[in-house]
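Reader question, answered in our methods column.
A reader sent in the components of a multi-part assembly and asked whether the whole thing could be modeled at once rather than chain by chain. We filled in our standard form and ran it. Here is what they sent:
COMPLEX SIZE: two components
ENTRIES:
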Amino acid sequence: MNQILLFLNNGSNISLILFFLILGFYLWYAFSIIYHLIRFGVGVRPKILALTFFIGSFVLFVMVIVAYSQVDWKGILQQLFNLTITKI
Amino acid sequence: MSIFTTSTNSFRNQLPGETTVLVTRKHWFVLFFPMLILLFLAFMPFIIYFFISSASWYGIISSLFWFLVAAYFLILWSLAFYNIMIYLLNTVMVTDKRVIENKQEGFFRHTSNEVELDKIQDITVKVFGPFAEFLDFGDIEIQSAGAQPKFYFKQLPHPQKIKEAIMGLKIQ
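And here is the structure of the entire assembly that came back:
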């Protein structure tokens, strides 16, 4: 129990949990769309659209990861900190 | 990869020897407005970029801005395909034995109604408004002698042709 509280006390761990919750929700959402289109779709068109959705989602997901890795968090936080100090 | 081979419109709970004659979905006009809204929303980041790109602080947050734009497009892509999924899974199927309506209301929420061809008593086509008249879509009401007396299929394309197809099968 103490270990759990200690884990939750760390701010970065909270954001990690939040990240995995959002990722889990997104993966469930994407899976549900593909599953419904393949399982319940009548004819070929829903299956082709499921493939299109999968490819598009994969490409966009990779773009999000790459864009996230490019973010200069230190610079942004430093600028935000400077802005706060100036206002005070 | 066998799911991508040519299908003869087979479906769940298909009876042995049952042949699909017609598969129709709601008119594309139903999907038009949600897609138009999503298209408009897709332009929003570029409009925002136009206004903030000249600001002095843009250089610092530019990487964050493009990360948010990428995430935003991922959400829009998913929303678009959710709408497409709902549109594609709401079908009316006419087979040589029955008329089946599949209604998809969300994830894992669907209903299916059916009426046997020999229980159909009357079919009424209803077209309301100028849009429906010009784009050729309308509602079809089927009166049946079965447990459920009335079936109502909304916003179908070429309703008159669907009616003729059902009546033709009924006569055979």
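What stands out: Helices of chain B lie at 29-52, 58-89, 130-135, 159-171. Residues 32-85 of chain B form one domain.
Send us your own complexes using the same form.
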